[in-house]
Amino acid sequence: MPPVEPQGKLDQFFLLSQDLFCCIDFAGTLLSINPTFESLLGYQAEALLGRPCGVVVEPRDHPVIEAALARVCRGEKVNAFDICALAVDGRRVWLEVSASAGEQVIYVIARDISRRKAVEKQLRRNQRLFRIAGETAHIGGWYMDLAVGLPIWSEEVCRLHDMPVGHQPTLEEAIAFYTPSSRSRIQAVFTNCCEKGISFDEELEIITQQGRRRWVRVIGRAVRDELGKIIQVQGSTQDITERKDTERQLTLLERSVESSTNGVVIVDAQRPDLPMVYVNAAFERITGYSREAALGRNCRFLQGIDTDPATLAQLRKGIKEQRDVHVVIRNYRRNGAPFWNDLYISPVRDEADVVTHFIGAQNDITAQREYQAQLSHNANHDALTGLPNRLLLDQRLAQGCLLARRYQRYLAVLFIDLDDFKPINDTLGHEVGDYILLEVAKRLEEELRPWDTVARFGGDEFIVLLPDLAHEDDVLQVVERLLARVSAPYWYRSNELRITASIGIATNDGTIQTPRQLIQQADLAMYKAKRRGRNTFQWYTDELNRKVTERVNLRHALQQAIEQEQFELHYQPQIRHSGRVAGVEALIRWYHPERGNIPPGQFIPLAEDTGQIIPISEWVMETACRDAVVLNAESATPITMAINVSPMQFQRPGFLDSVKQVLARSGLPPALLELELTEGVLMDSAEHTIQALQALRQLGVHIALDDFGTGFSSLSYLKRLPINKLKVDRSFVGDVAVDSRDAAIVEGVVTMADKLGLEVLIEGVETAEQFHFLRTLQCDHFQGYYFARPMALSALKAYLKTPLVVVASQESPTSL
Q1: What pLDDT band is residue 9 in, cutting at 50, 70 and 90?
Q2: CA 37 from centroid of its chain's CA atoms
Q3: Where is the EAL domain positioned along the sequence (predicted)?
Q4: Are 739 and 745 in contact (CB under 8 A)?
């Protein structure tokens, strides 16, 4: 097909245009091209004319050409579009194409936009790189036009504040993200930048929308127009939280090293002679050398001519082999004083595993050895007296047994306990108590041989070991000297003090299997000396051990009896002068499953000592009151229930409330309950006791003074005690009919009680002679085997159903 010539045969525009110009038919065939087309793409017109226009277009853009050609053929307007053309040399040229239809042809103008496309591509690439950089380094951009006054945040700035992407805050909201301590600073520098154009670079802390605290680096600068007026402030915000954490950790590490009690030295392994480049404060304190005097020098200046060559060789070998090394080396302080340096050296390697430095940690173990010696002494000696303690005592006890067994000698153990030492601490103070303990320790040591041992066992207890005794009796003269020396006067600030000691003695020939048993044996003997009046001594015996063992076993059995309720109550009637039953006394009985009947005289004193009397007494009170309700329900006349109250139970806080509760639970009227107390209970803390008794009397409960005449009660107290009854002890009744002195005592008690308005009950009436004689004294009540032995509740019910008449003869009471 011949080329189509432009109007006017090679129109000047066609020839001179800087844009590509071509004509195509409606099928897309090239009819003509201008010189620019040829020069830009490198094609000759002869090679292209008559061919489809798509031959110079990248294949992926063919659909674009076809769509535009179809629109032109339909007479529709075609907007400019971009395609990528292919040059002869393979280059890609971006063209912006415009097309319009003529009568028989389509005129196409294409403008080279490759430079613009390259710029756009670079811009997109830069934007992507900036976005990646922002996301990676946590750096975001922001700006604020002063005319608008609203900050514009990038995506990364939004993320830093835990805000959704695209959030645009007000200036006040943006400032509010900063912590109170940082808010005033950012406000000030931002204002100066807006008003004066002063750039800022600050590290501040923010609190994000999710409440997380972050450190950020905020940079801002002012933007001016052509007249120099500030029109905008722009800047960046970078998350530096990780860096801040690292800095804090480094600061903490540096402060830790500086505050360490161990000397720390860092030497440069890359420089000749390994000079020191860092020493901490502990190094200065230990060696006496300042940092200025030490830095740049090799550590060998701390050594002396007597430093062990083998130690130096070990140190140098470890450094040469670049490994950890530990030596104890003799060094010298700046003042020439020697010290033992416990030195650890470790290499520091970089990423390439090259040793760049050595770190040395030194410790002055001269002081440590002294400290360890002091610790060893403290571990084996009492802090107050300086005497050996239990640990060292055990060692010397074992040695003493070994020597006694080897040389057929005796070993004696003395357990010394000061008598009534606690009141000294309580009344005069612990300072005086400590003085006494120090003096006792000194006196004990002065009375013993150099190879004997005095140890403080604890509190006011001392142990004396006497090894190498020829005879067991040799210990006696030592004990007597110790008792005399301890009891001698003590002078504290011109005041004379007195104290005594009780000593328990245990001896052995060294054959004992467990040496510590000697201390236990001496301890048992010491308690026996306490019970014998104190300021004396007692030997350990097998009989003593048997009694103690029995006491321990009985205590265990007693606890089982409490838990398993092995007790029961028996009741002994109390008879009026007329012969009728006035009341009963509750008496506890314990029948052990294996031991059988155990008398109260055996287990009650033990229960008083151990505190087990409290649950026992509570059980007795509860059970007796409950049984009293049953008895009175079946009796025509009131029957009083008499219950013995232990001193510990009576003095226990809340005793009155416990009595009220028992009465309320059982339903027993208070007037039918009689509590029996001994004189010792009533005379201890008399004023408090009187108040407690008055409260019980106001409650309606009767009070009886038991075992009257056997204690040391004062008659002046007796007249003040709010009691109802005196119980004359059985010790005055046995011979009352034949012994005028017993008779006089009983008669005097009865007369006195009558004058004081008190009832009298005579205990231990066992014969008709006793009963008839006592009746002549006008006694109110009687109790004893003559009338009835203690009996179980069922037997008591039967007894009460049989009326008694006391005959005038000397026969036993007769049941009607």
Answers
A1: very low
A2: 91
A3: 551-804
A4: no
Element (H, E) at 581: strand 581-592
Nearest to 478 by CA among 488, 469, 489, 487: 469
Share of the chain above pLDDT 90, in %: 32
Contacts of 240 (CB under 8 A, 6+ apart): 203, 215, 216, 217
Q: Phi/psi zone of residue 713: left (φ > 0), alpha (ψ -120 to 50 degrees), beta?
A: beta
pLDDT at res. 501? 93
Give the position of tokens 């505190």: 611
Q: What is the pLDDT of residue 173?
A: 94
Angle at 451 between CA 447 and CA 456, to 5 degrees: 65
DSSP bridge pairs for 507: 412
Q: Which residues pair with 728 in a beta bridge?
A: 708, 762
Tens-place pLDDT, residues 268-322 = 988 988 999 988 888 888 899 998 998 999 988 998 888 888 999 999 999 899 9
The two tokens of residue 71 are 């629109």
Give the pLDDT score at 619: 93
Taking the C-alpha atoms of residue 70 and residue 52, their distance in angstroms, rounded to an integer, is 14
3-class secondary structure, 343: strand
Angle, in degrees to the nearest 10, between helices 613-634 and 600-610: 130
The residues near 169 (Cβ < 8 Å, ≥ 6 apart) are: 150, 151, 153, 163
Closest C-alpha among 624, 615, 539, 535 to residue 588? 624
Residue with structure tokens 């003090």? 497
Strand partners, 772: none
Question: Residue 555 is which amino acid?
Answer: R
Concatenate the DSSP letters of all residues of 74-89 into one string: TT-----EEEEEE-TT
Tokens encoding 692: 């407690």
Calpha distance 326→360 (Å, rounded): 10
Taking the C-alpha atoms of residue 97 and residue 112, their distance in angstroms, rounded to an integer, is 9
The structure's pTM equals 0.47
The 10s digit of each residue's pLDDT in 487-522 is 999 998 888 889 999 999 998 888 888 888 899 889
> Do the beta carbons of residue 483 and residue 531 sit within 8 Å?
no
Instruction: Calculate the CA 235 to chain-centre distance.
Output: 52
> Of the ranges 6-10, 129-133, 591-595, which one carries the lowest mean pLDDT score?
6-10
For 263, the token pair is: 């000397």
Instruction: Give yes or no for a contact between 478 and 496, defined as CB atoms under 8 angstroms apart.
Output: no
Distance between CA atoms of residues 679 and 684, nearest Å: 9
Report which of 573, 700, 708 is spatially closest to residue 639, judged by C-alpha positions.
573
Q: Counting Cβ atoms within 10 Å, is residue 652 exposed (0-12), middle (13-18) or buried (19+)? A: middle
Per the CB < 8 A criterion, the answer to whether 782 and 767 are in contact is no
Q: Which of 788, 362, 443, 321 is nearest to 587 (CA)?
A: 788
- How many helices (H) and strands (E) would you count in the chain? 29, 33
- For the chain, the distance separating the N- and C-terminal CA atoms, rounded to the nearest angstrom, is 166
pLDDT given at position 417: 92
Q: How far apart are CA 591 and CA 557, in angstroms?
A: 11
Q: Given the structure tokens 């992407």, which residue do they identify?
A: 165
What pLDDT score does 129 carry? 52
Query: Is the per-residue pLDDT at 102 higher than 90?
Result: no
Pairing of strands 151-153, 673-678: unpaired
Amino acid identity of 638?
P
Start-end of H helices in 448-598: 474-487, 517-531, 542-564
The C-alpha atoms of residue 611 and residue 215 are separated, in whole angstroms, by 67
From the number of C-beta atoms within 10 Å of its C-beta (0-12, 13-18, 19+), residue 207 rates as middle
* Closest of 591, 574, 606, 598 to residue 672, by C-alpha: 574
Structure confidence at residue 63 (pLDDT): 92
Tens digit of pLDDT for each residue in 759-792? Answer: 889 999 998 888 888 888 888 899 999 999 999 9
DSSP state, 214?
E
Q: How far apart are CA 628 and CA 651, in angstroms?
A: 25
